[in-house]
Structures are given as structure tokens and as C-alpha cells.
Write a structure and sequence with these properties.
Radius of gyration of chain A: 18 Å
CATH architecture of the largest domain in chain A: 3-Layer(aba) Sandwich
Low-confidence stretches of chain B: none
Number of domains of chain B: 3
Strand order of the largest sheet of chain A: 3-4-2-1-5-6-7
CATH class of the largest domain in chain B: Alpha Beta
CATH topology of the largest domain in chain A: Rossmann fold
Number of helices of chain B: 13
Strand content of chain A: 15-25%
Structural class of chain A: alpha/beta
Strand content of chain B: 15-25%
Largest sheet of chain B: 6 strands, antiparallel
Order of helices and strands of chain A: EHEEEHEHEHEEEEHEHEHEHEH
CATH class of the largest domain in chain A: Alpha Beta
Distance between the termini of chain A: 17 Å
Oligomer: heterodimer
CATH architecture of the largest domain in chain B: 2-Layer Sandwich
CATH superfamily of the largest domain in chain B: ATP-grasp fold, B domain
Helix content of chain A: 25-40%
Mean pLDDT of chain B: 93
Largest interface: A-B, 64 and 57 residues
Number of helices of chain A: 9
Low-confidence stretches of chain A: none
Number of strands of chain B: 18
Largest sheet of chain A: 7 strands, mixed
Shape of chain B: elongated
CATH topology of the largest domain in chain B: D-amino Acid Aminotransferase, Chain A, domain 1
Chain lengths: 291, 391
């Protein structure tokens, strides 16, 4: 099993004719993702790698019956693209774009409040249910189908973790990058709730980093309601305060967002925290037992 | 991007937020003339640096004669200022703001940020002005008042009343009016200039009942600089580390740290985790460098050159998990940098992911001397061994 995306997923790529959008559309097609449509305003009627291109998301929905969007449009136009996909009624929107102004995201968050849409990202690698579908930019080859879930604020760090899991013999049900921005569409808790009800998920790896309080909130939720084993890792124990560590959201400010506080909150909730990234696979083995 | 106090106050003035009469002095010879133009005594001489904690660090001097104003400016300009935010070496002061001194009645704290968990712009107001707000929040949380703002409706007057009428003792009716207007203007400044922070500490009421911003801090959301072209000109490169400035020009995420192990990594999360692993192995990272998920050969080359320019670096670790960034691109970038400069320190390379075999092959067939780590833990051990051997 898996959550949010599977073999029934039909993807529209917004920004399909751009450099990033084009490259990753090919990668997704190689992974056997059903990319049913692309959208680039003004380029409707063309085809890209055999995929029909439309001028609007609504048109793509009407003609191709898509249910998930993957957004690659540049930052100045990304908020508009998310709202367009949501207003066309898509259930899942994955926004890869990095660098969206935060004031734009306050408007997006407000816009999505009364919509039935799950926004993943922005500034994220996307979501993959190995063996079924991949909506995003992660390398498909490191993943294996299985029953560990991964939720992460990072990109390449997630690949490292997935690689270690796969080498340790753990496949994955669904891996989600929730994004490295201060405002993201969905949090750890949103997805933990889904994994709780997913029979195909036996355990969860949670990858956090400095900045904000999302990990502390997740720890609180896990202690109260989550009934499956969780293994966590927090990046940035050596990060200096007040500096933005690559991700817009990865900053310790006003004494908030320190790695130590997050690790402490997770440990107090009974969660095993791998303190060294290099040992995450081993930690998973000791918590989950050998499959 | 951070603005200087005098730059933020110029903006405040245009938006109707009262600030003390004042003028910037960059050359000490101007100090006497400027002081005579400004209402006083007393005058306040304020070092213009981005770092906070200036008051306690001796960067704010109150003077009573023009002569004192000049000698205070002399004491600040051209010398490093050490505050608790600067590190032991301090930051160089290039300019000071000369301002009129005011008769203060009460001090407040007023700021605006984006609250991450509600995804809303949020105004923070406190009657405990002039102190560090984190400290106030910890010791007397009831004194820190907040109003979340609907991003579509914007700041509404009732929100100002919510904050102001909680004050004890209450404000005079004249001050209530000016305070309401100052709050509305702060919201306007925040949204007009894509700020990530507007902070006034202290915001004061004078003996005459006026509401005046004695200090001003503004930070701009870097993601929005493409539409804030006028503000980009206000950026002060002198405030930045030269290597960080170089990285910025090449669109690289680089932050200089105190250790001696240079690191080049793709992706911010993995770069942070790599720093942590270096530390766990008993060494200290010299930098954070994220060449990005989709770095080009050129960016890799530039990033590697920046690390090589850092004379403290005793060993270099390249940790790449190829996804969008292919390992062969990385390898060619490193070789391009190595062609230009010799690499005087041990180089440890850990490659994994997309096109890893090609990447390893390219490095192996070159003249480059390097150690291959099969995984992250081995990489960290090798780094620690190299550094301890070198010292």
C-alpha cells in the first residue's frame, strides 16, 4: 500500500516545456509514472515526449482526467500555478519550485484553506510510491517497494536515507519531501495521520532539520496518537544561529528551531533518534528488526 | 538581505512613521557640521552595522556638545565594534548616524514577522520595550501580545485596538492615535518591501505624547529580491565575509564557519548533516556549502575554488548524492578547478547516486590525488584522520 499517489495517479506537469520540467518529465516517464498532460500557457496543442500540452490546468483536467499536479514553474509564477491547480480541483499538488517569496505563500495557504487539496512542498523533491509512481525529482533507482515510510524536509538528505534503508533491506511504501521553506502545504503530522491508517506502512522515518517547530509538534502528535515505530534524524546540530542554511526555512532565530530542542522533544516522545546520519540504516534495523 | 538602521528609517519616514531627526556621517570631518544642523543637545551617535547588541557593545554614544559628538564619531568610525552577535573580531564600522536625543516617556517593542505555523503575517507588541524580546517572552510571556493578519484583508484597525487597549497604564488618547497609525504603517512597509522582519525596539512615546521609532531593523525576503530591485542597491557588501560574497555572486549557498574541514555537498539538508558528521568524527567544519540539487560544472568549479581560498582548511570532503546533479558533472567541475589551482590539502571524495560509475572513472583517470570513501561514515573517519595527522 501507499498514500496519496499510486498506480492510479495521472499527472499533469505544470511547466513541462521548461528545462527542469522537461528533464524530469522524461525521468518520471522512465519510472512508468502516468504523465497524462503538460501545461505551458501559450504552448497548448503541442506534444512533449508524446504528452499533450495544454494552455491551462482546467483544460488538462477536462481532457485527460488527471488528479495530481507536479509544478516546475519559476518562483515569480509558482503561487499562481498552485492556485490554478487547486481551483481546477486537483487532490494532490506537488510543488518542486524553490525560491517562492514568503508573502506569496501566505496567500496560497489562505487560498487552500477551504479547498480539498493536499499541497506537498514547495521547495521539495516530491513524492514517490516505489514500484507504482513517482511525482517529483528523486532518483527512482535507489527506491524499493516495501513497508517503511519516509517524511522529510530535505531533498538529497532523503536520498541518502532511502539509500541506507534500501541497503539495509527496507523497501518503502511512500516517501514524501514536505519541503524546506518556512511555509509548506503539509506538515509531518498531516502525513503521519495518513501513514497511521495505511496497512502497507509498518514504520516511519522522519527527517527534520533546524528552524521552526514542526518536529516538536510531530513529536507531540506521535506520543499521543501514533501507533507505529518512528525513527528520526535531525540535521543542523552544528549550524550557527541566525544564518539561513540553504533552505529558506532552515534558520535558528529568536532561540527557536535548535536541533537539540527537536532531538530532545522526539526522544521524550519515545522516538529513536539517529544522532549520526551514517548510522541511520543500522538504527532502522535495530528498531524494526530484520525483515 | 538586511538593511542598515538609517536606510530603514528613510523608508519609515516616507511611510509616515516618526523617527528622530538625524543624518548619516561617513567621514569624521563632516561630524561637527552635521551635528550643528541637528536638533540638540543631546545628540546620539549610533554605529551603523547589521549586528545587533550595539548598545551594550558601546556602539551607541550619547553626547552633549558638538565636540563630544565629533570625538564619539571618531571613536567609532574605522574601528571594529564587538557585540555579542559579532564574534571576537567584531565588525568594522564605516558610518554612524547622528540623531537628536528625545525626552522619552515610555518604551515599547513592535515587530512584524511571518508566523510559520499559521502561515500569517504577525504583529508582535510589548510594553517591555528596549529589552530583548526573547528574554521578555521567556520571563513574562503575558507582556508579549500578538495579532495574526489575514493576508487578503490586511491589517485592520481593530487589531491595533486589541493591542493598544491592553496596555497598563493606558496611553493618552493622542498617543493611541499615533500608535495606531504607526502599526498600520509597519504592516504597509512589511508587505510593500517583502520583508521577513520589521522590528522597532524601542518604539517610544515622548514626553510630548508623540510615538517615535528610536531604532529600526528591516530584513528583506531574499526570495523576493527579484521584485525589489530598488532595495538591492541598499545592500552593503562590506558587512559580509569576502568568501561568502564570492559565493553569492556565483549563486552558491556558502556560510563560513570556524573549523578546518572544507566541505562541498549537494543539497542543504545533506550539507548540514555532513557538517554534523564531520563534528561527530572529532573534526570541525570550515564551512557550509550547498552547490544545489542541479548544479552545473561551472558552479562546482566555483564552489571548489572558494573552499581552496580558505587558508584555514586542512582537508576537504566532497559528499555528493547524485540525483539531479549527476556525479560525472561533479567530477568534471572538480577537475576544472584543480587545473587552475593546486590542491595543497588531502581531498576525500564520496560519490553516490546518478552516474556514479562515470564520475568515479573520470576522477580515477585524472592526475588528481584523492581518497575514495565508500560511504558517509568512512568519509568522516578519513577526514578526522587527515586533520589530526596534519596538526
Amino acid at each position: 500500500m501507499s498514500i496519496l499517489v499510486d498506480e492510479r495517479t495521472r499527472v499533469v506537469v505544470q511547466g513541462i516545456t521548461g528545462r527542469e520540467g522537461g528533464f524530469h518529465t522524461k525521468q518520471m516517464l522512465d519510472y512508468k509514472t502516468t504523465v497524462s498532460a503538460g501545461v505551458t500557457p501559450g504552448k497548448g496543442g503541442r506534444k512533449f515526449e508524446g504528452v499533450p500540452v495544454y494552455n491551462s490546468v482546467q483544460e488538462a483536467v477536462d481532457k485527460e482526467g488527471i488528479n495530481v499536479s507536479c509544478i516546475f514553474v519559476p518562483p515569480p509564477f509558482a503561487a499562481d500555478a498552485i492556485m490554478e491547480a487547486a481551483s481546477a480541483g486537483l487532490g494532490v499538488i506537488v510543488c518542486i519550485t524553490e525560491g517562492i517569496p514568503i508573502l506569496d505563500m501566505t496567500k496560497v495557504a489562505n487560498f487552500l484553506k477551504d479547498k480539498n487539496t493536499v499541497l506537498i512542498g514547495p521547495n521539495c523533491p516530491g513524492i514517490i510510491s516505489p514500484g507504482k509512481t513517482k511525482v517529483g525529482i528523486m532518483p527512482g533507482s535507489i527506491h524499493r517497494p516495501g513497508d517503511m515510510a519516509v517524511i522529510s524536509r530535505s531533498g538529497t538528505l532523503t536520498y541518502e536515507v532511502v539509500d541506507q534503508l534500501t541497503r539495509a533491506g527496507f523497501g518503502q511504501s511512500t516517501c514524501i519531501g514536505i519541503g524546506g521553506d518556512p511555509i509548506v502545504g503539509t506538515t509531518f503530522i498531516d502525513h503521519l495521520k495518513r501513514f497511521k491508517d495505511d496497512d502497507g506502512t509498518k514504520g516511519v522515518v522522519l527527517i527534520g532539520e533546524i528552524g521552526g517547530t514542526a518536529e516538536e509538534e510531530a513529536a507531540d502528535y506521535i506520543r499521543q496518537e501514533f501507533n507505529k515505530p518512528v525513527i528520526a534524524f535531525i540535521a543542523g546540530r552544528t549550524a550557527p544561529p541566525g544564518r539561513r542554511m540553504g533552505h529558506a526555512g532552515a534558520i535558528i532565530s529568536g532561540g527557536q528551531g535548535k536541533a537539540e530542542d527537536k532531538i530532545k522533544a522526539l526522544q521524550e516522545a519515545g522516538i529513536t533518534v539517529a544522532l549520526n546520519l551514517a548510522t541511520l540504516g543500522e538504527t532502522a534495523l535495530s528498531v524494526m528488526g530484520k525483515n | 538581505m538586511k538593511l542598515h538602521e538609517f536606510q530603514a528609517k528613510d523608508i519609515f519616514r516616507k511611510f509616515g512613521i516618526a523617527v528622530p531627526d538625524g543624518e548619516l556621517v561617513t567621514d569624521i570631518n563632516q561630524a561637527a557640521g552635521v551635528t550643528r544642523k541637528i536638533n540638540g543637545p543631546p545628540w546620539v551617535i549610533k554605529a551603523q552595522v547589521h549586528a545587533g547588541g550595539r548598545g551594550k557593545g558601546g556602539g551607541v554614544i550619547i553626547t552633549n556638545t558638538p565636540d563630544q559628538a565629533v570625538s564619539s564619531a571618531k571613536a567609532l568610525i574605522g574601528k571594529p565594534l564587538v557585540t555579542k552577535q559579532t564574534g571576537a573580531d567584531g565588525v568594522m564600522v564605516h558610518q554612524v548616524l547622528v540623531e537628536e536625543g528625545l525626552e522619552i516617556d515610555r518604551e515599547f517593542y513592535l515587530s512584524m514577522v511571518i508566523d510559520r505555523s499559521t502561515a500569517m503575517p504577525t504583529m508582535i507588541f510589548s510594553q517591555a520595550g528596549g529589552m530583548e524580546i526573547e528574554e521578555v517572552a521567556e520571563k513574562t510571556p503575558e507582556l508579549v501580545l500578538k495579532e495574526h493578519i489575514d493576508p487578503i484583508a490586511g491589517w485592520m484597525p481593530y487589531q491595533a485596538r486589541n493591542l493598544i487597549y491592553k496596555l497598563d497604564p493606558p496611553l493618552s488618547s493622542e498617543s493611541v492615535k499615533s500608535m495606531m497609525s504607526a502599526m498600520a504603517s509597519v504592516y504597509k512597509v512589511f508587505t510593500t518591501f517583502d520583508c521577513s522582519l520589521v522590528e522597532i525596539n524601542p518604539l517610544v512615546t515622548t514626553k510630548q505624547g508623540k510615538v517615535v521609532a528610536l531604532d529600526a531593523k528591516m530584513s528583506i525576503d531574499d526570495n523576493a529580491l527579484y521584485r525589489q530591485k530598488n532595495l538591492v542597491e541598499l545592500d552593503d557588501p562590506r558587512e559580509k565575509d569576502p568568501l561568502e560574497l564570492m559565493a553569492e555572486k556565483h549563486n552558491l549557498n556558502y556560510i563560513r564557519l570556524d573549523g578546518n574541514v572544507g566541505a562541498m555537498v549537494n543539497g542543504a539538508g545533506l550539507a548540514m548533516a555532513t557538517m554534523d558528521v564531520i563534528k561527530l568524527a572529532g573534526a570541525e567544519p570550515a564551512n557550509f556549502l550547498d552547490v544545489g540539487g542541479g548544479a552545473s560544472e561551472e558552479m562546482i568549479k566555483n564552489g571548489f575554488e572558494i573552499i581552496l581560498k580558505d587558508s584555514r582548511v586542512k582537508a576537504i570532503l566532497i559528499n555528493i548524492f547524485g540525483g539531479i546533479l549527476r556525479c560525472d558533472v561533479l567530477a568534471r567541475g572538480v577537475l576544472a578547478a584543480a587545473e587552475k589551482t593546486s590542491i595543497p590539502v588531502p581531498l576525500i571524495v564520496r560519490l553516490e547516486g546518478t552516474n556514479v560509475d562515470q564520475g568515479r572513472e573520470i576522477l580515477k583517470n585524472s592526475d588528481l590525488e584523492f581518497l575514495v570513501a565508500k560511504d558517509l561514515s568512512e568519509a568522516a573517519e578519513m577526514v578526522a584522520n587527515q586533520v589530526s595527522g596534519a596538526s
